[in-house]
């Protein structure tokens, strides 16, 4: 679906923003592109969606160059941008009907039904976007990305600005899209989204990919094999980290009562820091 080989890009001479990215995204996959601010995520997405040209190396979507603008290229991709590009003086319905009009009638989804699926407040359907909260604008932007049933979805920070139940709903909708066979390129620094949704993730830092695998494999590779044990000893509550191998027979410390044992599994963010030496929010 997406094939990127040795992709390089510079905004100004002498400084490379993308320094030789190579990766492939399979049909029907949710592929996470994770990195801290300024690492090159949006630049990569802009190249793949045909907004930015002038790159070196190879970038192919459906076997085509994204900046060659073949007639049907844009109708096959849906994009949720980091910042909502909506007409703020128009309502949600007018925005969506306008964007839908760019696509063949056979591909268009019903704007009102899409907004209902996204739990958009009915009373705001005909009010201007300028009166919407951040979460409402995000819902309209998601509807805009889905309005023409794209084969490939680019989602840049889809759950940003949403409350926890909105984020759960968006994750459900993204999974539903995947079930229908849509491929998803998810750009984010939200670890929970990446861990819950992605089949594979790539870690990008300073314009380079440092690791690429399934979230589970990445976590297993760097598994600390440690357990955190909480116990009572001489009426005092204590917590220690112990290697799992040392727990196989007896607890290697004096205790009166074990209260809990938890294996210390690294989070995707721990792994990211181990690979790149940086946190995801810098
Ligand atoms: N139009 C531009 N002109 C010059 N430099 C730019 C431009 N857009 C981005 N950059 C620079 O390129 C680098 C990568 O930016 P990019 O927006 O791709 O990062 P990002 O990983 O998407 O960050 P964020 O998480 O903040 O969105 C940054 O150093 C940024 O300042």
From TrEMBL:
Gene Ontology terms, MF aspect:
ATP binding
Protein name per UniProt: ABC transporter ATP-binding protein
Organism of origin is Blautia celeris
Q: Could you tell me which InterPro entries the record lists for this protein?
A: AAA+_ATPase (IPR003593), ABC_transporter-like_ATP-bd (IPR003439), ABC_transporter-like_CS (IPR017871), ABC_transporter_ATP-binding (IPR050763), P-loop_NTPase (IPR027417)
The ABC transporter domain covers which part of the protein? 2-231
Q: What taxonomic lineage is listed for the species of origin?
A: Bacteria, Bacillati, Bacillota, Clostridia, Lachnospirales
Keywords for this protein? ATP-binding, Nucleotide-binding, Transport
The reply to whether Transport figures as a keyword in the UniProt entry is: yes
Q: Which residues form a coiled coil?
A: none
């Amino acid at each position: 679906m997406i094939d990127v080989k040795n992709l390089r890009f510079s905004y100004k001479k002498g400084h490379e923003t993308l320094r030789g990215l190579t990766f492939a995204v399979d049909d029907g996959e949710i592929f996470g592109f994770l990195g801290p601010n300024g690492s090159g995520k949006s630049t990569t997405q802009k190249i793949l969606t045909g907004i930015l040209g002038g790159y070196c190396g190879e970038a192919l979507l459906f076997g085509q160059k994204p900046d060659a603008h073949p007639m049907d290229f844009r109708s096959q991709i849906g994009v949720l941008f980091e910042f909502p590009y909506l007409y703020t003086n128009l309502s949600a319905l007018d925005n969506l009907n306008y964007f839908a009009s760019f696509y063949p009638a056979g591909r268009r989804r019903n704007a009102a039904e899409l907004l209902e699926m996204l739990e958009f407040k009915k009373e705001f359907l005909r009010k201007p976007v300028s009166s919407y909260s951040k979460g409402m604008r995000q819902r309209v932007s998601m509807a805009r990305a889905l309005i023409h049933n794209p084969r490939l979805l680019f989602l840049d920070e889809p759950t940003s600005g949403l409350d926890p139940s909105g984020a759960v709903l968006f994750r459900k909708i993204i999974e539903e899209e995947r079930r229908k066979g849509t491929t998803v390129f998810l750009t984010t620094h939200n670890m929970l989204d990446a861990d819950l949704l992605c089949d594979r993730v790539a870690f990008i830092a300073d314009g380079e990919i440092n690791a690429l695998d399934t979230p589970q494999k990445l976590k297993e590779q760097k598994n600390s094999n440690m357990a955190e044990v909480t116990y009572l000893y001489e009426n005092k509550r204590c917590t220690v980290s112990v290697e799992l191998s040392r727990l196989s027979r007896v607890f290697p410390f004096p205790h009166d009562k074990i209260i809990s044992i938890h294996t210390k599994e690294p989070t995707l963010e721990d792994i990211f820091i181990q690979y790149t030496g940086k946190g995801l929010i810098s």
